[in-house]
Amino acid sequence: MSTAITGEILIGQRAIDNGQRSLKAVNPATGETLSPDFAVAGPAEVEQACVAAWAAFDAYRETSLEARARFLETIGDRIMDLGQALIDRAVAETALPAGRIEGERARTVGQLRLFAQVVRAGEFLDVRIDPAMPDRQPLPRPDLRLRNVALGPVAVFGASNFPLAFSVAGGDTASALAAGCPVVVKGHPAHPGTGELVGRAIQSAARECGMPDGVFSLLLGGVETGAALVQDARIKAVGFTGSRVGGLALVDIASKRREPIPVFAEMSSINPVFLFPAALAARAEELGKAFVGSLTMGAGQFCTNPGIVVALESPDLDRFLKAADSALSAYVPGAMLTPGIYGAYEKGVQALEKADGVQVCARGTVGEGPNRGRAAIFSTSVSNFLAQEALQHEIFGASSLVVRCKSIEEMRQVAESVEGQLTVTLHLEESDYELARGLVPVLERKAGRILANGWPTGVEVAHAMVHGGPFPATSDSRFTSVGTLAIRRFLRPVSYQSLPAALLPESLRAENLSRLPRLEDGKRLLP
Amino acid sequence: MSTAITGEILIGQRAIDNGQRSLKAVNPATGETLSPDFAVAGPAEVEQACVAAWAAFDAYRETSLEARARFLETIGDRIMDLGQALIDRAVAETALPAGRIEGERARTVGQLRLFAQVVRAGEFLDVRIDPAMPDRQPLPRPDLRLRNVALGPVAVFGASNFPLAFSVAGGDTASALAAGCPVVVKGHPAHPGTGELVGRAIQSAARECGMPDGVFSLLLGGVETGAALVQDARIKAVGFTGSRVGGLALVDIASKRREPIPVFAEMSSINPVFLFPAALAARAEELGKAFVGSLTMGAGQFCTNPGIVVALESPDLDRFLKAADSALSAYVPGAMLTPGIYGAYEKGVQALEKADGVQVCARGTVGEGPNRGRAAIFSTSVSNFLAQEALQHEIFGASSLVVRCKSIEEMRQVAESVEGQLTVTLHLEESDYELARGLVPVLERKAGRILANGWPTGVEVAHAMVHGGPFPATSDSRFTSVGTLAIRRFLRPVSYQSLPAALLPESLRAENLSRLPRLEDGKRLLP
């Protein structure tokens, strides 16, 4: 594996230099510019990538399950082959610690391997057969067979905050490729070199596995590049992780196409954490310290960052806050991902500082060097929280608002008042269960994941994971972007009625049916 | 079961007369007005129905699977109890033959019973468990459990053309209730008395089964009533069957809400039928006659009506058309569903008659009485079809356009040029398979159902059915409105992480897990 970074655009197996090298990578920890300059994809390159993806589609979606699984695994292998060069470049481009990047690489490669298992297991095809009943009265039943097919080429928008796991070969790409969809990635401009390295690893894996040219392309650019990509008629679905403004803009573009297409946008969440009385009484200090650990992880730049804490006013809450204050003063902030993200964070914190009825509980230390966000914990009353919608807005970074409740009923009111969330967290002891029981149905309506006695940061890639939730957490609460269910976003069912075996897809022919999990006349059968 | 029709609005267990009795039922076969006058729901009634649905939601979604299944079955029983009164009223309001209405009732009741089976089987919950791995390195894995939960109250828009099966207790209502969603139906104003009878059957079943008040409401009205319903914040999803204009209007309203919600709109399809050479040679006359049977069924008022026929120019095609002409001249048209539908049909046929390069192949007889659409078969060349987008527009009624191809390549071009479809049909013999093979991948991209040697009208309610397809057939090709998969539209996954058993939903507790189909650590296990 070569680890040279050329700044070219990757379209299928080609690397293209269109001369528009206006994008520079910056080390946010130092402000220094990293070489090389990167080519920004214009309309011509967007079109070339989409044409290539479309040309690859019919062949790629009918690759055997084994061949597709091997492709996913090979991508993982080629990413590992990048070795230290990938870690170094990602650290330089994101200011995230090397340990975090190594963990994220493991997660990314593990995710590709998990989707390879999903592909091999074949359950995602949702094969169903309702055999013909020629003698049924009053009308015969025809032979009906169903399988899921891939939607078509998918546009994936890399996120700033996970340069590997939610980026070029992240969960959106892995699940779309697993579904049988070619992928055109619009890489995040905050880590273009990391993106290119991973993109070349995918190119290499595609070549090695004999995948059709165009199964993968990587474009860099800004809003215009992204808009052109979503507008291209050959793109049939979009996966996005980022801001509410960005996600809604893509949803809007997709809905105005001649053929509207689904967009799964993971956007905005403040991830409420509910502290119940007995838990606070038993372990206020421990909770305060752990809260700050979650709040400041990755400089607070997690979709699942604990942005509000909801607790009963009490001396135990004061102990919690004191412990948080103490932990915060020991926290040395790392640089945030980009000057833009840092600027938005500072603006958000300043607005919160000035908001009516909001008190500062604790501020973190001032970091040395550019782009260091000063962590912040604020507090406010329930009535104040309910009166000001702006207090619910996500501040991307290490800022959190403690909502002081006078009663469990007020905790319930806060729960009812918040918008849709990726996660809600409960800290409780057995004696809190009775109080919490009434809250769970409310929280189920609000969030994609409910967790107890842990912290929302850290999203396991698993079969039972949901990284999704009601609007504005995502644009469609019926899906998830993490975990094996993420593949569902990119599949649609097709029913085949009385089709001769010669024309049926292989997986639905009599001789192959028993190799796949299937629903036969309503009965679940396993291979 | 009382079979009195009062014209009142049904909100939960109440029947309300708001004095706004401006809607009259009309017998389209005679033009006579049927009594009584019906109350049109205004903003107050829309709100009451949504408030009631919201109040019922948390209780209804946690009813036991057995109780919910019994409720669905009881609705079916109470519909059957309506007996001849239901048949008579539906015939009077739609001009459809009694035999058709009886068949549709059987389908409707069968559909409710099928969803009862789906509920009992529990697979729709998609239960998943990834057990904790406390010793995993470098980080432990928490206990993760997942189930699907109901989205919330669903607005269902009844269709004009299926007064029972796609209406008050039709597939949308059955699948939403099965998912655990309360339902507010906006009944179609073309058959208000039929709707009220069925609505009262549901009321009665809800009472008998002890379901929460508000689990079901039935509103009548026009565009404003429907818009108010979709705008109500308590409504969390929409099911619609109807026109492209109507469906797109609802999608637009839903997308502009403070909290956008998913709309499944089944809208527009011309259901191409491909006639392959050997099939035409072997059975041109039989095909021509059967084609007219499908075309004129229910006065052509089917979503799956065969609106275009694609065939190779040949003497066999002429034989086919001659047989169709002969069958059409023996067809006595029934009245269409409403004067509005009849008027739109006539306008569409007149436009086609005048379109460049379009020839009349056959016209049906002129019917006696109002609202009789004269059936029509037109033909045109491929180049003409490709040049005029308007030739692809659905004409709702018994009109079809034969596209004459000079080669198989031209058949493929037509297939590539059409928009998304509910169905595509192939008529072929074994010697056609080779020609058809290249077409199947194209058709898979275009339609939700591919059928061979049959006709698209007649949609089996089954596990392997798809009544859906790419835009504009529906607003989201990942779902279907017929068949057991229809339930997926109204469900979202929730993940529970490390939740104490006392707070877990019953279905996810250790002692109940083995009763449900589930994915345990990626392995499929059956009860």
Automatic annotation (TrEMBL), chains A, B:
Catalytic activity annotation: 2,5-dioxopentanoate + NADP(+) + H2O = 2-oxoglutarate + NADPH + 2 H(+); 2,5-dioxopentanoate + NAD(+) + H2O = 2-oxoglutarate + NADH + 2 H(+)
Keywords linked to the UniProt accession: Oxidoreductase
Protein name: 2,5-dioxovalerate dehydrogenase
A GO molecular-function descriptor: 2,5-dioxovalerate dehydrogenase (NADP+) activity
Coiled-coil regions listed in the entry: none
Gene3D superfamilies according to UniProt: Aldehyde Dehydrogenase, Chain A, domain 1, Aldehyde Dehydrogenase, Chain A, domain 2
Chain ranges of the Aldehyde dehydrogenase domain: 19-459
EC code: 1.2.1.26
Domain of life of the source: Bacteria
Family: Belongs to the aldehyde dehydrogenase family.
Organism: Bordetella genomosp. 9
Main enzyme class: oxidoreductase
